[in-house]
Amino acid sequence: MAKDLFHEIVKTALLKEGWTITHDPYRLNLNDLKVFSSALNIDLGAEKMIAAEKEDSLTGSLTKIAIEIKTFGGPSLVYELHNLVGQYFNYQIGLDFQEPDRLLYAAMPNIAYDSLAHNDFFHAIKHKLNLRLIVYDQFSQSIISWII
User: Fold this and answer.
1) Label partner for 105 (CA 20 to 30 A): which of 71, 75, 96, 127?
2) Bridge partner residues of 50 (DSSP)
3) How far apart are CA 28 and CA 39, in angstroms?
4) pLDDT in tens, 90-142
5) Does the pLDDT value for residue 33 go beyond 60?
6) Looking at residue 64, what is its pLDDT?
7) Quick one: which of 25, 38, 114 has its CA closest to 68?
8) Do residues 28 and 40 touch, judged by C-beta distance below 8 A?
């Protein structure tokens, strides 16, 4: 499977924010579901220890995510969004079976997000799918925002 054009950019951005890349790609093994004879691949898996203070003590919890990276480089923004929605939906169901505590995110460039940010259809999709987004800047190789 070919990697997305901005795969390494998103990987670099996650590393800059202290994430550890644990899977490249993250394989969803669906053989037990008797639906597919092979696996689906989400672009990346990552983990980060999140520290929190509580009553003068330091506690931590491990946050695990899977990231589907999108370039939105095609001629149609609607077509790219359609592809993202299909993959996100399938991957979320696969994660629910395989590792339900791992959160799924879709990574999209800020240029694409800015084009969709004021679109009611996009917001309806985001709400209906509980679409979690990582908005990244391909030029600075950094994450601009996490949208839940």
Assistant:
1) 75
2) 61
3) 5
4) 999 999 999 999 999 999 999 999 999 999 999 999 999 999 999 999 999 99
5) no
6) 94
7) 25
8) yes
- Run of H or E including 121: helix 120-129
Burial of 88 (0-12, 13-18, 19+ CB in 10 A): buried
In 70-125 the beta strands, taken as DSSP E runs, fall at 103-109
Buried b (16+ CB within 10 A) or exposed e, 47-84: ebeeeeeeeeeeeeeeebbbbbbbbbeeeeeeebbeeb
CA–CA separation, 75 and 144 (whole Å): 24
Per the CB < 8 A criterion, the answer to whether 105 and 130 are in contact is: no
To the question of domain 7-62+73-147 being in CATH 3.40.50.300, the answer is no
Annotated domain spans of the chain: 7-62+73-147
